[in-house]
Structure formats: C-alpha cells, structure tokens
Amino acid sequence: MEWHIPKGSRFFARVLNPIMSTDAKGTVSGFTFGRGPGGPQVRRKPTPVRRLRTTQPANRSLLGWLSRQWGGLTDVQRQYWREYAVNNPQPDGFGGTFIMSGINAFVSLNHVAIRLDDAAAFQESPPTDEVPATIATFAAVTGVGNPGEVDLTITVTGTGEAADFVEFKVAGPFLSKGRVEVHSRYKFASSVAGNILVDTIADLNEGSWYWFQARYVDEFGQRTAWHVAQATPMLTP
Fold first, then answer.
1. pLDDT band per the 50, 70, 90 thresholds, residue 182
2. Strand stretches in the chain, DSSP E
3. Are residues 100 and 144 in the same domain?
4. Average pLDDT estimate for 217-236
C-alpha cells in the first residue's frame, strides 16, 4: 500500500507498507524515515532550548549594558580596573591562575554584585578592600523540617557582614552518593546575607542525592572559592 499527503500539510510521508515498515519514507511528527548506508533509519532534529524560559536573556542584557558602561568610563577609571585585574589573579580551573583584562574584571564583579543585589550595586571603580570573610567549613545534611529539604551550614573566617552574601548552588538529583562532582549540572539555588550562616534548600526529590556548593561574595562582587558537600533530603515520615 502506498499513501501520500501533499507537502505543506500537517504531515508528509510516503510508505510502501504500514508506517513503521522498513520501507517507510518521509516525515511524520518531526521524525524522518528513510534509508542510509546501514539500512533503514529514523532521524529527528534536536529541539533547541527555549531561551526565554532561562536566565540567559537577562544575563545577556546585563552583559551588554556593562560593556556599554565600560565605554563610558574615563581612562583613569579603566586603568584602575586593569591594575585591579593584575593584582587579583583568578583560578583557571586547572589548579593555576590567570590574569583578567580590565574589562573582564569590571564586568565580572559588577555582574555578580548586580545579580545578587540590584542595579544600585553598580560600581565605576574597583574595590580597594579584600573580601572580609571566607568560608572555612561547609556542611549539607538531611533536613529536619519538611520532606524534600536539605540544611546547609557554613563557618567563616573573618567577619561575615550583612551587606555581603553567601551563595549556594545545587546539582542533582542523582541515584546514589557520588565521588566526582558533575559541574555541568550545577544551578544557583539560593543566597543569604553574609552574616547568616545557615540556609535550607527545599523541594528536592526524596531519596535522591545532591551536590551543593557555597561561596562568600562581598557587596562589590568579589567572591571566594566554592566549597562542596553532598546530602540526601528528608523523607516523608
């Protein structure tokens, strides 16, 4: 049997036998039937991520705005940022460090500060003080409040300040406790004031395992290294 639907209709396919036969040719509901070097094939184009449902549009807008602000700085201000970048090398992910450019430092610090606080956190000149505190220990344990919760606790060296932030990220769920982090899975989960040392992450899958990260961020966008912990959320009694 052979049937044909005109091109431009909702589907289009030509088959010599029922639609799932090895002789099917054409496209139905996004699936393309045909033959390749190895025999019959069914192909489908990947569906792109719907960017409007992510934070990407807002981040791109902020990055573009900061780039324009860099162009409006004075030569002296831009030189201050270049000097800041040279004096504050950043970790490169391989155990070493690298030197940012002046514009990289300007955009990086302002992006973090504005994202955590608001537009009032924008700064034309780099900070002159170091981060007032760093995370000494970080623990994630099964919550004691409601099912699906994990309690996070940190201790800091120095003095945590109310104007600063502690930022948390989460990765998961996973079927079991892991030995290696999956960095591509991390998403920002929560932030609290820099003088608050506890937080709770809710609405997690009961019985699953999660990775958590925490770092201290001052009001100027300067941040410390991430600390890592694992936990599984509270179960329904």
1. confident
2. 3-4, 12-15, 25-28, 31-36, 39-43, 90-91, 97-98, 133-142, 150-158, 165-174, 187-193, 198-201, 209-217, 227-231
3. no
4. 94
